[in-house]
Amino acid sequence: MAHRWTNTLTLNDATPRDVFLNRRQLIAGAAAGVGLVALAGQARAQDAALEPNSYEDITQYNNYYEFGTGKTDPAANAHTLTTSPWEVQIDGMVDKPGAYAMADIMDAMTIEERIYRFRCVEAWSMVIPWNGFELADLLDMAGVQSGAKYVAFETALRPDEMPGVRFPVLDWPYVEGLRLDEAMHPLTIMATGIYGKDIPNQNGAPMRLVVPWKYGFKSIKSIVRITLTDQEPPTSWNKANAREYGFYSNVNPEVSHPRWSQASERVVGGGLFAKRQPTLMFNGYEEEVASLYEGMDLKANF
Ligand SMILES: Nc1nc2c(c(=O)[nH]1)N[C@H]1C(S)=C(S)[C@@H](COP(=O)(O)O)O[C@H]1N2
Ligand SMILES: [Mo]
């Protein structure tokens, strides 16, 4: 499927919003039809402005502390990670717990292209054309039980293959979590590719989470375990510094990091005179996700 995206799809074709709105339309039915048509038009106009970063930007400027804390360390070091064969343990409150082979997951899932904004909490951003499947489809495969409220994720921990885990920068393995409704949201994907190629190790091969309206650290890489639970799971950056990194970590230009503003971001790849651009509420996905947080104090739940 090399370069299928560049050959056959325009930016407008490949947007998640069309998929999302189509699904919403199915669910919402005719009553909301007129509003949704207007919304779809708006979304397409917004997407047309999305200019993906180069393959090089996306794969040479990374955060993956298991391979070092420098931006170019993951690209230099992550080739040592064995990503095939790969198994993902899905357990906790599911009907079909067990070890799922990555190859079987790929056979069962529908791979789509999704061009998403990506915003790191460090105030840099990119636009990335991911390939992947909706996390909801994988969770449906395992059969989420009715009492489940959260999803916990865990990255592989392999000291022999990951030079960075010798240093106690974080409490390894890297762990993350989402509320179940966030996990089931159609914008939430498991990425398995970039620009139509298999996802490189430094970007989280063979499968990493992408939650485009949250700061990048929520998008946990190289996942080996997914646990459905009724308790809010611990998350690595929150454990490291709870004052600076909350469980939600929704992109919010109005809530500063204790040490810097989140009102604007540096676009990676802009060169020496890189322009900053304003950071958008929920990273530009407000239409799609604001309802998940209705009535919540976003300053308290950062
Ligand atoms: N396991 C693991 N996942 C991780 C990280 C990490 O250090 N380890 N870094 C996070 C951070 S801070 C960001 S910004 C993104 C970076 O993803 P990218 O390198 O694909 O741009 O991955 C996130 N997922
Ligand atoms: Mo990040």
Describe this protein's structure.
Helix 2 packs antiparallel against helix 3 (33-47). Strands 3, 4, 7, 8, 9, 11 and 12 form a 7-stranded mixed sheet that branches. A 5-stranded mixed sheet has the order 2-1-10-5-6. The protein is built from 10 helices and 12 strands. The termini are far apart. Residues 1-46 have low confidence and may be disordered. With 302 residues, it is of the alpha+beta class. A hairpin with a 4-residue loop joins strand 3 (112-119) and strand 4 (124-134).
Q: Encode the helix/strand succession as letters.
A: HHHHHEEHEEHEEHEEEEHEEH
Average pLDDT number? 88
Q: Structural class, from helix and strand content?
A: alpha+beta
Number of strands: 12
Low-confidence stretches: 1-46
What is the makeup of the main sheet? 7 strands, mixed
Cα gyration radius (Å): 19 Å
Instruction: Give the CA-based shape.
Output: globular
Distance between the termini: 39 Å
* Helical residues, percent: 10-25%
- Cofactors, ions and other ligands in the entry: ligand MTE, molybdenum atom
Tally of alpha and pi helices: 10
Q: What is the multimeric organization of the chains shown?
A: single chain
Strand content: 15-25%
